[in-house]
Write a structure and sequence with these properties.
Shape: globular
Distance between the termini: 48 Å
Largest sheet: 10 strands, antiparallel
CATH topology of one domain: Catalase HpII,  Chain A, domain 1
Number of helices: 19
Bound molecules: CIS-heme D hydroxychlorin gamma-spirolactone 17R, 18S
CATH class of one domain: Mainly Beta
Low-confidence stretches: 1-15
CATH architecture of one domain: Beta Barrel
Radius of gyration: 27 Å
CATH superfamily of one domain: Catalase core domain
Helix content: 25-40%
Structural class: alpha+beta
Mean pLDDT: 94
């Protein structure tokens, strides 16, 4: 089998795609292990071969990661803020040709799952809507043991080697001396680190795109990120990437909206998921795979062991083979959502890892971190973590919080106790048990980054150039926003130098947005190339032409037209939206016909940012009163600014005027009927955007 690492490096020396070595000037400035041993390389883990797996012997890596894993007690050091649900996975197409894992071969079989979504940087009590990557972790309770597909809503990652993970997370978390900012990447240390790590550039494009501010957990894609293997009955292997695609399509918020939601409803995503499931509106995703042989992988213009690279679906199509449905809320947040422990090492026979050096580090880290977080090697006995689809049994014994009461003497193997009529205990199963892919390995023991990992910019360019015009403007503006919070100018300058490798237009727009001059282009380890654009990477246009899963707010006052309120409600609900009545007082209003209408939310506490579209069904007097209420003016103003459809009655016109709402296709007079408003509400009004904010 041809392997990229067999090629000698162009320099004849071990390659280092990152070129990051910073040499200490004095012995007391150098990095050591916790026992004082100086560290020669803080960039690369020790591998068997240039692109080979990481070696257990790497005590520098293990100590660093192990220390990191135990840094927080008891909240997760990353992905602390999470929301979860139970559901099932149903296989629709067999992958028997490629794998013997029953979860992927038995069509129609429903496998119980528990899924936890999360933000990465914030603490457990942080808000739901910062700009961040979202975790998308799925635990399948299969008949052959738990399978944990611990992914993200972005298909690539910031770094290529697990040894950099503690540095990455330290840089993005609140700054060490001051304890802020919470749940935000817009600060010095994050941009310092990523600008020194050109390999992060591709992921930066994704994180700064609208994917970093999803509208709902139900409206995000999910990705396994790392490359895995599938092994069939004959132990033949293919390489595979895993994908989740939401039935509700991909939707995002506007940045200004995300910031305001953080104040209006810090639990916005958690509440949205919980309420949808409680209402029987079960979120659903398609499950897809990109399968490729080793030869096909070797022919790609990038290395699929490098987690900073995506395989565009135009290059290798995604086959949809199953579906995921979340249909039950957890009974207890702590017992389930908090105590669930996902382990990338949980794989049934027929699924296996690749040598991706990021994944290799993860194989150690997750098991280890649970010891800090859950405090015992027996965390697998906690109900949410227990294998449910099958028995689990072995000869491991005792430890903190042991809940199993074992019988007999057989706590070792081999034994011959059965010959005396005693219980002999379980035995290995060479046929049905987990077998690793027989990967041929050779090479010297090295600590380096393979040359095939050295192109840090081509895919960042591919991503930026594949976006639609509004998305490009959002992305550029997001970088301007974040860098405007970076106080050290040399860091901003360095980012601009990197961006010139991605796209000159992007770099220029960001520089202009910052009011800075464009610096010299950063020297790239490998000159980026222009890849064929991938429209599949866009977000706008990837949502269904309906209101399914979305929320509509109807602002009412005393004297409002009850029939119209009902018509708007019925039209929105008819398209799958949820509707809330918002009124100046939570007790509700007296309608024109004298009937009472109860409110779901009081105006000041239910701003328009939590809705996808709003209708203002006001009486003349009601509107006159609201003109003196900033919350009412903001209700209309923000809906306009966040590109939402606004339905209105003629009597609401003075409020629209005061809020600066100008007529356009999304501003719909309800005398034309509720369906016209609902039709306008199906999309954001992208054409309005240049009128309401200056974008980079
Ligand atoms: Fe994680 N990650 N990670 N990560 N990760 C954790 O494990 C780690 C990475 C992801 O809802 C921790 O149980 C290392 C990539 C999710 O409970 C920890 C590296 C991806 C979750 C850990 C990575 C992820 C975690 C903290 C670099 C996308 C939350 C708590 C090698 C494929 C799961 C825990 C949940 C959680 C380590 C990189 C996804 C410390 C060392 C890449 C969704 O073990």
């Amino acid at each position: 089998m041809a392997r990229k690492d067999d090629a000698p490096s162009s320099t004849g020396k071990p390659g280092n795609g990152g070129e990051l070595h910073q040499t200490a000037s004095a012995p007391d400035a150098r990095i050591t292990t916790n026992h004082g041993v100086p560290v020669s390389d803080n960039q690369n883990s020790l591998k068997g071969g240039r692109r080979g797996p990481t070696l257990l012997e790497d005590f520098v890596l293990r100590e660093k990661i192990q220390h990191f894993d135990h840094e927080r007690i008891p909240e997760r050091i990353v992905h602390a803020r999470g929301s979860a649900a139970h559901g099932f996975f149903e296989l629709t197409h067999s992958l028997a040709k490629h794998t013997r894992a029953k979860v992927l071969t038995e069509v129609g079989q429903k496998t119980e799952v528990f899924v936890r979504f999360s933000t990465v940087a914030g603490g457990a009590g942080s808000v739901d809507t910062p700009r961040d990557v979202r975790g998308f972790a799925v635990k399948f309770y299969t008949k052959e043991g738990n399978w944990d597909l611990v992914g993200n809503n972005i298909p690539v990652f910031f770094i290529q080697d697990a040894i950099k993970f503690p540095d990455l997370i330290h840089s993005v978390k609140m700054e060490a001396d001051r304890g802020y900012p919470q749940a935000a990447s817009a600060h010095d240390t994050f941009w310092d680190f990523v600008s020194l790590m050109p390999e992060a550039t591709h992921m930066i494009m994704w994180a700064m795109s609208d994917r970093g501010i999803p509208r709902s957990l139900r409206m995000m894609e999910g990705f396994g990120v790392n490359t895995f293997r599938l092994l069939n009955e004959k132990d033949e292997a293919v390489l595979v990437k895993f994908h989740w695609r939401p039935k509700l399509g991909l939707q995002s918020t506007c940045w200004d909206e995300a910031v305001k939601i953080a104040g209006a409803d810090p639990d916005y995503h958690r509440r949205d998921l919980h309420e949808a499931i409680a209402a029987g509106d079960f979120p659903e995703w398609e499950f897809g795979v990109q399968v490729l042989t080793q030869d096909e992988a070797d022919a790609l213009p990038f290395d699929i062991l490098d987690a900073t690279k995506v395989i565009p679906e135009e290059m290798v199509p995604i086959q949809i083979v199953g579906r995921l449905v979340l249909d039950r809320n957890p009974d207890n947040f702590f017992a389930e959502t908090e105590q669930v422990a996902f382990l990338p090492t949980n794989m049934p026979p027929g699924i296996d890892v690749s040598e991706d050096p990021l994944l290799q580090g993860r194989l150690f880290s997750y098991q280890d971190t649970q010891l800090s977080r859950l405090g015992t090697v027996n965390f697998h006995q906690i109900p949410i973590n227990r294998a449910k689809g099958c028995p689990f049994q072995n000869l491991q014994r005792d430890g903190h919080m042991q809940t199993q009461v074992f019988q007999g003497r057989a706590n070792y193997e081999p034994n011959s106790l059965a010959e005396a009529g005693e219980e002999g205990g379980p035995r290995e199963d060479p046929q049905g048990g987990f077998r690793s892919f027989a990967l041929p390995l050779e090479g010297t023991k090295v600590r380096l980054r393979a040359e095939s990992f050295a192109d840090h910019y081509s895919q960042a360019r591919l991503f930026f150039r594949s976006q639609s015009a509004p998305e490009q403007a959002h992305l550029a503006s997001a970088i301007v926003f974040e860098l405007s919070k970076v106080s050290l100018e040399h860091i901003r300058t360095r980012v601009l130098g990197n961006l010139r490798n991605v796209d000159e237009d992007l770099a220029r727009r960001v520089a202009e947005g910052l009011g800075m001059d464009l610096p010299k282009k950063t020297a790239a380890a490998v000159e980026p190339t222009d890849m064929a654009l991938s429209p599949g990477l866009r977000l706008i246009g990837k949502y269904p032409d309906s209101l399914k899963g979305r929320a509509v707010g109807i602002l009412v006052t005393d004297g409002a037209d009850g029939a119209l309120v009902e018509a708007v409600r019925a039209a929105a609900v008819g398209e799958g939206a949820t509707v809330q009545i918002v009124a100046p007082k939570v007790g509700g209003v007296t309608l024109k016909n004298g009937k009472r209408l109860k409110a779901d939310g009081q105006l000041a506490g239910t701003p328009s940012v939590i809705f996808d579209a709003v209708a203002l069904v006001l009486s003349k007097e009601g509107c006159a009163m609201l003109l003196n209420d900033g919350a009412a003016v903001d209700f209309a103003k923000n809906a306009f600014g966040h590109l939402k459809a606004i339905g209105f009655t003629a009597d609401a016109q003075p409020l629209l005027d005061k809020a600066g709402v100008e007529a356009d296709a999304g501003i719909v007079d309800l005398k034309g009927g509720a369906p016209a408003f609902v039709a306008a509400a199906r999309t954001r009004q992208w054409d309005r955007e240049p009128k309401v904010r200056l974008l980079a």
